[in-house]
Amino acid sequence: DAGVTQSPTHLIKTRGQHVTLRCSPISGHKSVSWYQQVLGQGPQFIFQYYEKEERGRGNFPDRFSARQFPNYSSELNVNALLLGDSALYLCASSLDRGLAVSTDTQYFGPGTRLTVL
Amino acid sequence: QKEVEQNSGPLSVPEGAIASLNCTYSDRGSQSFFWYRQYSGKSPELIMFIYSNGDKEDGRFTAQLNKASQYVSLLIRDSQPSDSATYLCAVINLANNLFFGTGTRLTVIP
Question: For A56-71, how does the pLDDT look when each residue is reduced to its tens digit (9 = 90+)?
């Protein structure tokens, strides 16, 4: 079975530009989460979507937005890019069985390396 | 205060030794706890999860959870050079969002 896929693999943008990153979850997974990982740090939670609805949002400015499509794939959009947005952007999908105590495992894609010049 | 705290290391252990990785969390309502491994330049991969107090063993790995102390640990027995990686502790909140610590870099010396 195919894992989580992300595109593009690498991206170079300049300050002020806009970027769209894409993610396809594992087949059957309905939840997609986005993370930003800067060098030397752990992944930071940006968004989670479940059944096309936003379930959670991390401490990121409104320049960051996302959406989930009927086929459960997702896009992360970042406007007005800053140098500090340079990072590895990770997408993860999970089955989400709706259990009260969630042990829902998130599986990560390979990431998109974004460089802002 | 960060939600999840880890000692960033680096932690070095000789081959065959036990590596002990620690993590504390701030949200007392957290339910489930995960350990991920991340090799340089790669994405995180799940090692194991735990949600009940006590120990959980999976091969050479043992996760330990103490909710009263808000403490999670990961023990790696018979450490191998291939275990050299960054180990990430993660916590799920009530909204089912996952929060990571900064990670501990482990080096196993042959």
Answer: 899 999 999 999 999 9
